[in-house]
Write a structure and sequence with these properties.
By secondary structure, the chain is of the alpha+beta class. It is 20% helix and 29% strand.
Length: 141
C-alpha cells in the first residue's frame, strides 16, 4: 500500500509539475515590439482594468507573457516603468489552469517617475484577452 501511495505521489508530481500553462485559443496574443515586449495599441477607459482582481489583465503566455505585457507599459508621458512581482493571490477557475482548472493571479508593484505611490496591478497569465494599458499609463510604440 505504501509503495502505491509513493508511486501515486511521484506520478502526480511528474504530471502536474511538468505541465506547462496553456493559452486560450479564443484570442491571439498581440504582436511583439521585440522579443520581450508586447505591442499594445490602446489605453483602457475602464478605471478598474488591471487594478482589481475581478478585472485582471489577461496576458496569457505564462510568466513570460506577464513580463512582455509589463515591458510594454510606460507612464502617461512616456516615463520608464519598473515593476516587482509581489506574489500570487486570488484563485480562480480557468480551463487553462494547471491543477483542477484553477489559476492564481499575480500581483505586481509598478512605478514610474512622478507617480505619488506605487500601483498594484493584477495579471492573469493563463488566459489571453484584448490587452490595453491601464488608466494612468501609456505604452511603448
Amino acid at each position: 500500500m505504501m509503495r502505491l501511495l509513493i508511486l501515486l505521489v511521484i506520478s502526480s508530481f511528474i504530471f502536474f509539475g511538468c505541465k506547462t500553462s496553456s493559452v486560450s485559443l479564443t484570442h491571439t496574443p498581440p504582436a511583439l515590439l521585440d522579443s520581450s515586449t508586447f505591442s499594445l495599441t490602446a489605453v483602457s477607459e475602464d478605471s478598474s482594468y488591471g487594478y482589481t482582481a475581478k478585472n485582471a489583465i489577461q496576458t496569457g503566455g505564462g510568466a513570460e507573457g506577464e513580463r512582455r505585457y509589463l515591458n510594454a507599459l510606460t507612464g502617461p508621458n512616456g516615463e520608464t516603468v519598473t515593476y516587482i512581482r509581489l506574489g500570487s493571490c486570488c484563485a480562480f477557475k480557468t480551463p487553462n489552469g494547471i491543477i483542477d482548472n484553477t489559476g492564481l493571479l499575480d500581483k505586481y508593484e509598478v512605478r514610474y517617475e512622478g507617480l505619488s505611490k506605487p500601483v498594484i496591478l493584477y495579471l492573469n497569465m493563463y488566459d489571453s484577452g484584448d490587452m490595453k494599458a491601464p488608466v494612468n499609463f501609456g505604452y511603448k510604440k
